[in-house]
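Table S2 (continued). Query chain:
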Amino acid sequence: MEERIARFITALRSSGLRISLSESTDAFKAVEEMGVKNREIFRLSLQTTLVKEAENLPTFDELFSIFFGNSDVPTFMSAADDITPEEAQQFAKGIEQLNDQLRRMLERLLKGEMLSQQELERLSKMIGLNQMDDMRYRDWMVQRMKRALHFKEVQEALRMLEETLQQLGMNKERSQRLVQLMQANQRALVEQLRQFSGQRIAENMTNKRKEVSADALINRPFNTLSDKDMEILRKEVQHLASILRTRIALRMKKARSGSLDAKSTIRANLKHGNVPIQLKHREHSLKPKLVVICDVSTSMRYCSELMLSLLYHLQDQISKTMAFAFIDHLEFISPDFTNKDARQAVSHVLERMPSGYYNTDLGKSLQDFHRNYLEVIDGRTTLIVVGDGRNNYNDPQLDIFRKVTRRCRRAIWINPEASALWNSGDSDMLRYSPNCDVILTANTLAQLTSALDRLLIH
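Corresponding output:
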């Protein structure tokens, strides 16, 4: 118990509570005096000694429930043993038109099966929960897990299943009861995800080192970064850009003379009897012309901010950059970088475009671009889209995206999400991808730098 209390205090500190060593000692003394058998007295002993400000009470209560088991175990109910063979056959026929993932999930809900520890660990790794050490992002992590499990599609399938079962001859009351039970199991599944994410974040908080080096942070997924982590990375961007600039400059110097121009060499050496004393090369312009469209919504903010900062520091290696940002509409942001350092410029853009959850509309932003800025795209332009391809079920405007990409030299999409998530929830990534020349996954600053190095080769 003492070790658990110590880990609990560490988690409270990681969440921003100011707890001194003497206050920690007082907490242990209070627990020793009052005991742990009465849960409420135990909770009040810790609260009284550790919490000094009322605004910290919700954080204390949430972490207390995680460390000392306040939450009830989710209740799953199985209908598999209660349905008749005829109803089981109707159910199987009702879901046969669905894809494999949806069929498996509906069968799980029918049987009332929890997610196994192995499945939870796989989900945790996929969405970056293993690196998350900030309880404020718990609900967001749950949403990402629900998205990976196709919850939106499952809810729609359940609504359709009730009608299908009735068409197949199942009694209306019986079909309603069956679907309601499956919906209850889905809610229990959400509670299981919430408990698991809270426990995992709490573990990460207590295991977190006090000081994290920039070298470690550049390999940490964007969706697990805290505000403090970002402060460190903002300083690291300039160093990484300097390394990248040197690498690009050396590459340009090496290739500056271009390839051998045989015709020009022959003409230049006619006076020498065609002895190739003077070699001629084709000149190459290696500096690219970029148009960058960045998603600066909540889920993409850190990735886009660091991308824009890197590009700002590399302007001497780029002939021209036209930068745009969007959430639910598009804005031209290149003027924000005039006579400002990268951090000031990016901060100004983000202040002007406050983010929110579930309000991204890439389709409308593409319409804005097509209507107002299409002429900036030509045959020398490299188009870079930085985003997760999620559109909140709005019209993705694929025809416009196809028209834009056909005008440019290359279309490159940089996405921080793993490809396994591209076919989940509101993701339109697989619909956009056929119109892209290159798709790069960049979920860390190191990967983002590598992606930028790669796209500036040509």
